[in-house]
């Protein structure tokens, strides 16, 4: 199977009918696929992204598929901007019932060559950004009957990647954040889970040198890269009532890599 587009065409499985979702970093890549799938599953979606033009285009594309979507420029490292994103959601569709902390960046280099600023920036976007998203979304959810929060980690947070001490540390930290916040928020009927994608076919991964791509492919028992929608479908499951008794869980979407 090269792609799992069946949920994105025709009558989508309406797992999120009437729900309201916020997805950060959703102007492109895996984040966009999550937002698009949520829209096809019946959710009203708010896209938060630091690239306002791309976020607007993403929201328009979701609307063209028949979904409900809006956007707001958002730097997830800034408390006031994340608070504004949640407020924009409430004003547009109602308080969020689903929050996906997906925003992320890379600044790759070995420790010897990596500037401290690049280490801190990657941790800020991934980890502080998810902390901001979790606490502001949770505050709104707690007042309206609970909800589901999904953090997008990475298999590099499990095994570490050469040249990515910042990214690997941030993605590992997301697992600790997921489990600790799951314990704190369970009493408010808020579930918090995480997804760890492996090699997923995106513009960024397909730009890597062929030898690097081949080396990663050799580690995958299923002998292929994943598609963004295959990550999105797992996020959809965790966001929906199908995962109603799951919290603090970490699901790997890797084709068996690093089992």
UniProtKB/TrEMBL annotation:
It comes from the Bacteria. Gene3D superfamilies: NAD(P)-binding Rossmann-like Domain. It catalyses: a (3R)-hydroxyacyl-[ACP] + NADP(+) = a 3-oxoacyl-[ACP] + NADPH + H(+). It is found in: Secreted, Cell wall. InterPro entries: KR_dom (IPR057326), NAD(P)-bd_dom_sf (IPR036291), SDR (IPR050259), SDR_fam (IPR002347). SUPFAM superfamilies: NAD(P)-binding Rossmann-fold domains. Residues 19-203 form the Ketoreductase domain. GO terms for molecular function: 3-oxoacyl-[acyl-carrier-protein] reductase (NADPH) activity. SMART domains: PKS_KR. Keywords: Cell wall, Oxidoreductase, Secreted. Pfam families: adh_short_C2 (PF13561). The keyword Oxidoreductase applies. NCBIfam families: PRK05653.1-3, PRK07231.1, PRK12826.1-2. Belongs to the short-chain dehydrogenases/reductases (SDR) family. This is 3-oxoacyl-[acyl-carrier-protein] reductase MabA. The gene is fabG.
